[in-house]
Amino acid sequence: MKILSAVLGSPFSGSSSEKIVNLFIDRLPKEEWNTAVLDLSDISSEALLFRSKDNILSASIERILDSDVILAATPTYRATYTGLIKTFFDQFPENALSGKVVLPIQTGGSAEHALSIEHGLSPMVRTLGAAVASKVIYSWGEHWNEDGTPSKNLEGLIDQSVKEIIGTSG
Ligand SMILES: Cc1cc2nc3c(=O)[nH]c(=O)nc-3n(C[C@H](O)[C@H](O)[C@H](O)COP(=O)(O)O)c2cc1C
User: Fold this and answer.
1) What is the pLDDT tens value at each position of the chain, 170 positions in all?
2) Whole-angstrom Cα distance, residue 30 to residue 32?
3) Looking at the chain, which runs of residues are DSSP E strands?
4) DSSP 3-state percent helix, strand, coil across the chain (nearest 5)
5) CA–centroid distance, residue 66 to ligand 1 (Å)
6) How far is the CA of 126 from the centre of ligand 1 (A)?
7) Angle at which helices 152-169 and 16-26 cross, to 10°
8) Atom 21 of ligand 1, nearest CA residue
9) CB under 8 Å to 49, separation ≥6 — which residues?
10) How far is CA 149 from CA 6, 9, 137, 146, 154, in A?
11) 112 Cβ inside 6 Å of ligand 1
């Protein structure tokens, strides 16, 4: 059984990055993948800032260290990832993610900051030794239909990423 953990870097529940994570996980063969979604907004902010200890934070770190694949999902804030997801990855020592694959998933208000995955989220997780997937997902408003369902384009992006992750880790 492969272990996949998704990290939600949006401070808000029901975020579009969370929806993409769920669409991704739904496409994995259930019998082969042990999956978990870690909502970082459930963790004490004091603990994330190294001011106190928190059991949810410790359990989340352990889960990531046990994982083969990590989905790092975040909205774009100020042309890069959120402070929330940064404080979480700040908890790990150098090379803690070595041997693991990270798939960056980033949402934005428009396509303007799509390339920020390449100078923000991807190099950030590489400093921890992770291998970054090639088929990263950057999504914005036009990827969603009016009824809240994903567009064909977004489904195509997710399908490509699922194929890559299953191919490299399955
Ligand atoms: C504080 C803040 C900063 C933001 N900065 C950007 C930005 O620089 N570029 C951008 O495309 N969208 C920006 N946005 C819009 C969010 O990225 C967009 O609403 C988000 O992708 C929604 O994702 P979510 O539903 O996953 O939270 C910003 C939103 C907030 C609240």
Assistant:
1) 999 999 999 999 999 999 999 999 999 999 999 999 999 999 999 999 999 999 999 999 999 999 999 999 999 999 999 999 999 999 999 999 999 999 999 999 999 999 999 999 999 999 999 999 999 999 999 999 999 999 999 999 999 999 999 998 75
2) 5
3) 2-8, 33-39, 69-75, 101-107, 131-132, 137-139
4) 40, 20, 35
5) 30
6) 23
7) 50
8) 108
9) 87
10) 21, 21, 17, 7, 10
11) yes
Ligand 1 centroid to 115 CA: how many Å? 14
- The encoded tokens of residue 50 equal 């190294």
Three-state DSSP state, 48? helix
Task: State both tokens at 73.
Answer: 């999902």
* Fold assignment, 2-169: Rossmann fold (3.40.50)
Cβ of 111 below 6 Å from ligand 1? no
In whole angstroms, what is the distance from residue 96 CA to residue 117 CA?
Answer: 21
**Structure tokens belonging to residue 159:** 């399908």
Q: How far is ligand 1, taken at its centre, from the CA of residue 113, in Å? A: 10
